[in-house]
């Protein structure tokens, strides 16, 4: 195709009829690559801006993100399209098939992700603490809080994560604890790194920790993510930006708490989780990690 700019690297070696064929093949390859190319960050950012603008005009705007947020590409294919299945007889029967756990199943060691192996993991050691509250601000005690995260290099200890950042033999990246009577939880871990993903060209997730709150039954589970303050990747991330309400987005970001930092040991981040009501912590639209 004469309208396709030649590859600069090839242009110095393509001359005559044979070169014309080579150029044509290269151009065709470029066209095929363009057809299957990931969208650019510019396009994704424009889609995010349009979605935010539309949400801002909606008089009945919900703080909850749409389940099929187009800039987050895979959500278009895997969001629920049908209403939840009704359990006709005994809704509580569903709990008979759910996992169960008891207080003795969760130990203090489970909340320290830096002590699960024979050595210290690499990275910036942090304490993440907060409270689980209901809509009235009352503490929710006895909640199973589970976390999972990438290591300091931005790599998950998971076979699906093959991006070329180092694994850390001293870090698995999973932990859990139960909230105490004041609804408080506390983890010791390392700050996760940002990592690339294939939503679009040059897509990077801001550093985050995945949280699951179990309640007292399987059907009460809330899955969400905690972010770190001041991350420059926030505006580029369609998962965080799928929460179109700026105030609701802000509630997903932890606060640096110098009083929670431990001298010579760790930096402190505080993040409270509100289970419902106007100040609720929103669920996580990301479901494949
Ligand atoms: Fe993640």
TrEMBL record:
<feature type="compositionally biased region" description="Basic and acidic residues">
    <location>
        <begin position="54"/>
        <end position="67"/>
    </location>
</feature>
<feature type="region of interest" description="Disordered">
    <location>
        <begin position="1"/>
        <end position="39"/>
    </location>
</feature>
<feature type="domain" description="Intradiol ring-cleavage dioxygenases">
    <location>
        <begin position="128"/>
        <end position="156"/>
    </location>
</feature>
<dbReference type="InterPro" id="IPR024756">
    <property type="entry name" value="PCDO_beta_N"/>
</dbReference>
<dbReference type="GO" id="GO:0008199">
    <property type="term" value="F:ferric iron binding"/>
</dbReference>
<dbReference type="InterPro" id="IPR050770">
    <property type="entry name" value="Intradiol_RC_Dioxygenase"/>
</dbReference>
<feature type="compositionally biased region" description="Low complexity">
    <location>
        <begin position="1"/>
        <end position="37"/>
    </location>
</feature>
<dbReference type="Pfam" id="PF12391">
    <property type="entry name" value="PCDO_beta_N"/>
</dbReference>
<dbReference type="InterPro" id="IPR015889">
    <property type="entry name" value="Intradiol_dOase_core"/>
</dbReference>
<feature type="region of interest" description="Disordered">
    <location>
        <begin position="51"/>
        <end position="84"/>
    </location>
</feature>
<dbReference type="InterPro" id="IPR012785">
    <property type="entry name" value="Protocat_dOase_b"/>
</dbReference>
<keyword id="KW-0223">Dioxygenase</keyword>
<dbReference type="GO" id="GO:0019619">
    <property type="term" value="P:3,4-dihydroxybenzoate catabolic process"/>
</dbReference>
<protein>
    <submittedName>
        <fullName>Protocatechuate 3,4-dioxygenase beta subunit</fullName>
    </submittedName>
</protein>
<dbReference type="GO" id="GO:0018578">
    <property type="term" value="F:protocatechuate 3,4-dioxygenase activity"/>
</dbReference>
<dbReference type="InterPro" id="IPR000627">
    <property type="entry name" value="Intradiol_dOase_C"/>
</dbReference>
<keyword id="KW-0560">Oxidoreductase</keyword>
<comment type="similarity">
    <text>Belongs to the intradiol ring-cleavage dioxygenase family.</text>
</comment>
<dbReference type="Pfam" id="PF00775">
    <property type="entry name" value="Dioxygenase_C"/>
</dbReference>
